[in-house]
Specification:
Helix content is 33%, strand content 20%. It is α+β, with helices and mostly antiparallel strands.
Amino acid sequence: MKSLHRSLSLLFIVACSLLWVSASANSHDDFLECLYSYHPKESSSITQVIYTETNSSYSALLDSSIRNQRFSTPNTPKPLVIVTPLNISHVQATIYCSKKHGLEIRTRSGGHDFEGLSYVSHVPFVVIDLVNLRSVDVDVENEEAWVQSGATVGEVYYRINERSTNLSFPAPVFRTVGIGGSISGGGDGSLFRKYGLSADNVIDAQLVDAHGRVLDRRSMGEDLFWAIRGGGGGSFGIVISWKIKLVHVPSTVTFCSVGRTLEQNATQLLHRWQYVAPNLPKDVYSVVTISTTNASENGTKTVLATFISLFQGGANEFSLLMQERFPELGLVKEDFIEMTWVESLLLMNGLSNETSEILLDRSNRYTILPPFVKSKSDYVREPMPEIALQGLWLHLLEVDEGGLAVQNFFAYGGIMEEISETETPFPHRKGTLYKISYNIAWQEEENNNSQRYISWMRKLYSYMGPFVSKSPREAYVNYRDLEIGRNNYHGKTSYKQASIWGRKYFKNNFDRLVYVKTKTDPKNFFKHEQSIPPCLHCTS
């Protein structure tokens, strides 16, 4: 049956591609004419933000924030038009004209969508790239800021730090992640155990809905305001900007990173970490990065677990805390490095030799992983036994030299234990010990072997099944994974079909998301392979 479904999907893709040429030519011209006539007095303004394949800047713009080269191949479907709006009117015009001429919209903030859903579609489509809508207006006195969705988290961090070195915002670590996409799915980072997710610290928003209306928190209502803060991007409208609550950071933070191989008891240490890290004070951010390396003794490949921590305070206090809570790790005074908050951001981005201005760099330079990546995620509620970790090591050691496998274990706990799982659509709260991010990456010259790496990832994911959350097996919506379920390409997806992936991301919050979608976008204009579907026959 699975093979039949796969064959039907392939047939549909082929059919779409055959229809694409004839449909897109007319749609393209009609769409452009519609944009120019939407506001005749502003036609010269909107001309400046429209890019088609005949435009010399089209390819550079499209590629500028594609973070995963799996979705930038000669066979990857390209948008008929890219619009880079300068104002809300340009967004409204694009929505109106896309609806009128049957085009899908994909909205791109930072381009980090793990499945490329912010800039790829299998039907004729338009990309709204928010690169020009990225202002960050900081109000130090009220400890708030209005942030446009096109800003990267690096730009947000920089602009806040520019105004106050003791204020910041709980957002992801990596500087090129788009703030709009991050908040839409939750957004965790090095402050989330103390202050919660990005989405937990949003107090207002400005959204353009499927009817082109501009809504704020009051006019959109609490249901829609709830849904856009963690319900995933691309389902409810286009959020232009977010009003965020700023949080306090101290003048001094302390960073610690130590690596331990299997020969240095990495298995036992990671096993112990599962009990220690989720119960550390809220001021501690703790992650273990697991990779492979050559053992110094004989050059054979071994597993390396790197224990990384960031503490909101001084080295002496953190050192005493770790000696008390995790003496097995064997940390010494030299392992604790004091620095400013913004210096810690640079360090965790691998940019410790750069100045803070590098946070404004939106380019793909300084990336840590090779450019072709497949990722998955899990949440863990019971500590894995040592024997299970040993099985994980065997899988990691199978990866050939052409691939780079990196797994990250992010400790939860802290304030996440205190926030109800229905507070926002993001449900992975109380009882979660840690989140796992699985990643396999490879270089362009290895792309012919991409299926081998993806098969390896599936095998690893299957192995981990008994040791992670169950019923549902939870996943993080900001780590999109179409292999856990997907909507139909034509957009007519049943509630039952979408529930397969929807409950993994949102648990029982999925039902409320469907209710909000049905109320606000019943004709399902905003859609993609994992967008929330309307359900006209469902009850609230």
